[in-house]
What does this fold into?
Amino acid sequence: MPQGFRYLPDFLSVEEEADLLRGVEGLDLHPFLFQGYTAKRLVASFGRDWHFDTRTLAPGRPVPPFLEPVAEKVAAHLGLRREDFAELLVTAYPPGAVINWHRDAPPFALIAGLSLGSDCTFRLRPQEKKLQTRGATRSLVVARRSLYIMEGAARSDWQHSTAPVAAWRWSVTLRTLYAK
Ligand SMILES: O=C(O)CCC(=O)C(=O)O
Ligand SMILES: [Fe+2]
It folds into this structure.
C-alpha cells in the first residue's frame, strides 16, 4: 500500500455499526450528480459541502447527532480534535454501485473512511498517468466496521476507487482541511 495509507479492521464494534446503520438509514440521501451524470451511489454531506461543478467549498448542513460519537472516536484515534473534521460525508452504495477513480477535492487533507453494512474492494493507483500501469494498482478488502486513513502520498499522489458491491454498503468519510 502507498505511504500514508492505513487500514484498521474492526475499528467499530458490532453495536456501534448497528447504531450507525440505524442513523444512516434515516438520512435523506440524494443521488450523486456530476456534470449531468447521475451515479448509482447516494450521498449526504454535513459540515461543509464541496460543489463539484463550481469547485468551491460551501458551508454545509449541520452534522446529525448520531455521527458525533464516531467522529470523536476517529479523531481520538488519530490524535485530532473532533472539530478538525470539517466535512462528514455519508455515501450509500446499492448493489452494483461503485465510486470511480478519483483523487479527493483539493481543500481536503486527511481522509478517514468507515465502512458499514458490507465489505468492498478498495483500489489505489498512481495519479500520474504514465505510472498507471496494470501492476501499479493496489487493492484490498475494506471490511464492514473497518477504518481506513489516507494522508501523505496516498492522499496526494494516488487515486482511489471501489469495485461494485454485492450488497448495500454505507461509508462515512471524515475529512480535515489543509491549514490556511
Ligand atoms: O466509500 C468509500 O469508502 C470511498 C468514498 C470516497 O472515496 C469519496 O467520497 O471520495
Ligand atoms: Fe475519495
